[in-house]
Amino acid sequence: MIQVLIVDDEPKLREGLRSFIDWEAHGYCVVDTASNGNEALEKYQQLRPGLVIADIRMPGMDGLQLIGRLRELDPSLHILILSGYADFEYAKKAIQQRADGYLLKPVDEDELIGYLDTIKSQIDQASQAEQWRLTTREWGRESFIISLLMEHPGDPELLWSRAEELGLAWRSYQVLLLSTVLDEEDYGEKLAAVRNTMTRLLEAKGRGYVFSHHSQIGVLLNDPILPVEWSELYSNIRHVVEGLGIDFSLALGPKVCKIEEVAYSYGVANRLNKNHFFLGNDKLLTEELLVEQTHDGGVSVHELDEQIYYAVEIGNHELVKQLIEQKGTCYISQGLTEEQIKLHFAEMLTALLGRGIKQSPELQQRNREFSEYLSDIYKAWTLGELYEKAQQFLKQMMNELGSKACSKHQEVKMMLELIHRNFNENLKLETLSGILNYNSAYLGKLFKNETGEYFNTYLDKVRIEKAKSLLEEGLKVYQVAERVGYTNVDYFHSKFRKYVGTSPSAYRKTSNS
């Protein structure tokens, strides 16, 4: 609705004109009236109507003087002049003041409506033109912002000149960047919803301008976001974005003071988002998080795999969690990529499942379920999420294997079970001590006191007993050595002779004769 202010010193004419026609039917609304020019000027400044209808002759400030003052305030204001009699000179002056029309009293309804329709058409066209101007300005601004993200955006002086034209000539700049992965089917709709959120939280508050770049929604900020604001900003954005079912990361580039340095701020934010897998998605990612990882020279990945399997066998959930995270840290220190880490974790879980199936064949029946867990490994958005998926996989294995948590009175029993289940593996007292959370010397003494044998001696005897059974079945000596955990055949020969009193080949020949 176009707002109208009626100005006349005659009360009957003011009120009569208010009810003279159905203003709303023509797109207008009479918001107020005034009895003289001074009052009209005051009310115009308060109400800012789109049309003023004023009597040309009034006490104090007349209609022509009022037009002059109004033109100073708003050159585009629409004005209709009322007059009690035809006066060419007054009409001429009104036209010179760019009045939209000159109406004689008593006002003719059709003539007034004709003027109103013409003025409304002009206002609508001007509004559309202004909207188009603003839209094309926004398009131009966004295109310019995107050009600033490039490594070499152009000549600094030309950039600054263009920035002044587009309202981007600021003292500092900072890029806030939200990155996500969306399915093609709802890509446009969800991206628009994310953009609207960024607009509402930042652009609408004068903090900068929103832009879209591929699957990223960014904000070129005109004032740095302070550390005290990080948590609340992240929470507000996360609340909306996660409600759309979107995995995302949000990064803040450093503040820069030159427009040609915007690319640097964007580059850091982009790099942070690309490292979201390692940095997590529970906070705003900032430059301080980009620290180089170095190899810590700790336990090998293979040893960790062994420890994880034994921890699964004894049902130590907390240890499994610790070892999984230690394995991830080990991979990070080696500089592996997200894809490589996911692949290694999937391979480890597959191998552990294979070993578990040998111990408990019924695990094979849950193969489809375990395959889904493996698929989730590749979908993990962050390293923390990958840890959770891996732990769920191994927890299910523990449930199927019937593992029980180890107590202080079960250490030796657990060790014996592990030996009899895994005698063919490279079992070490040091490995088991880590699994059971005991000093290896103390655990060795505990084992000796309970069994009467040293750990390695007991392990050798279990292996040799199994070797005797395999030799009796007719397997070749090198095959038996490999199956019971000896990689060196000569070493197997010496151990067998020590405990049996004869060579493996002689024992095989005797038992099969």
Automatic annotation (TrEMBL):
Residues annotated with 4-aspartylphosphate modification = D55
The main location class comes to cytoplasm
Keyword RNA-binding tagged: no
Could you tell me the keywords of this UniProt record? Cytoplasm, DNA-binding, Phosphoprotein, Transcription, Transcription regulation, Two-component regulatory system
Q: Which domain of life is it from?
A: Bacteria
Response regulatory domain boundaries = 3-120
User: What are this entry's molecular-function GO terms?
Assistant: DNA-binding transcription factor activity; sequence-specific DNA binding
Q: Which InterPro entries match?
A: CheY-like_superfamily, Homeodomain-like_sf, HptR, HTH_AraC, HTH_AraC-typ_CS, Sig_transdc_resp-reg_receiver, Tscrpt_reg_AraC-type_HTH
Q: What is this protein called?
A: DNA-binding response regulator
Please report the organism this UniProt entry assigns to the protein: Paenibacillus apis
